[in-house]
Amino acid sequence: MHIVIMGCGRVGSTLAHILEDKGHSVAIIDQNPEAFRRLRGGFRGRRVTGVGFDRDTLTEAGIDQASAFVAVSSGDNSNIISARVARETFGVDNVVARIYDPRRAEVYQRLGIPTVATVRWTADQILRRLLPEGAEPLWRDPTGTVVLAELDSGASWVGEKVATLEAAAGTRVAFLTRMGEALVPEADTVVQDGDIVHAICRAEDLERINAAVAVRTEGEH
After folding, report:
1. How does pLDDT run across 132-179, given as a tens digit for each residue?
2. What burial class does residue 50 get, using C-beta atoms within 10 Å of its C-beta: 0-12 exposed, 13-18 middle, 19+ buried?
3. How far apart are the first and last CA of the chain?
4. Is 69 in contact with 7 (CB distance < 8 Å)?
5. CA 77 – CA 211 distance, rounded (Å)
């Protein structure tokens, strides 16, 4: 499919290369023609100099044939405006915008624009390397409301059904990691030794859920 990217920084250029390697056609937009130097010599996609929310610029980039639009410039406002123009003016359904201010994420989500809150994501990744396993979520939605996190289930849950763990913790198990592979469990799936349990829940409930799981762990020792 054809994909239009606004912003030829490190993220934009990396996306362009990955998408092209996967067989997609790519057009990349940037106000600064010097930015295209980040593209490799063999890049076959279009390089369009201009503002990403300008209709003529988008048309030159082939937005009329685009299946997706990605806005990853350095400006939050430019990214959101461009994404809205791509969706509302040109009818591109699949749009994503990067933002730096996570406080704006909820507003943008209500506009129907999926966002990647760069600052929040980066902070989470750093915290996961600094703090013990399970202390920080693996993922959170841009509004920070929903998280995916490892549960410190411990050996005491080995042999129990996933449904039993869910009932005790008051949450939903999203998947298990078993011997390095992801497994989507059924209610009667039995937790095995070495399984890592991943739960999806509201961020405000994570501490309570881990505490509920820990009660079982402590009680078994």
Report:
1. 555 567 777 767 788 888 887 777 899 999 999 999 999 999 999 888
2. middle
3. 56
4. no
5. 41
- Would you say 165 and 153 are in contact if contact means Cβ atoms under 8 Å apart? yes
pLDDT digits (tens, 9 = 90+) for 78-116: 998 999 999 999 999 889 888 887 777 767 766 777 777
Measured between alpha carbons, how far is 112 from 159 in angstroms, rounded to an integer?
A: 43
Does residue 188 have a pLDDT over 60? yes
Residue 139: which H helix or E strand, with range?
Answer: strand 139-140
**Cα angle, residue 16 at apex, residues 10 and 21 outer, rounded to 5°:** 125
CA pair distance 123, 167, nearest whole angstrom:
32
Q: Helix, strand or coil for residue 172?
A: strand
Most distant CA pair in the chain: distance in Å? 68
CB 74: neighbour CB atoms within 10 A? 11
- Write the CA distances from 13 to 30, 39, 101, 190, integer angstroms: 11, 6, 22, 44
Structure token digits, residue 3:
């994909």
CA atoms of 203 and 138, how far apart (whole Å):
12
For residues 178 and 156, what is the distance between their CA atoms, to the nearest angstrom?
16
Do residues 3 and 26 lie in contact, with contact meaning Cβ atoms separated by under 8 Å? yes
Residues paired with residue 68 on neighbouring β-strands, in sequence order: 3, 94
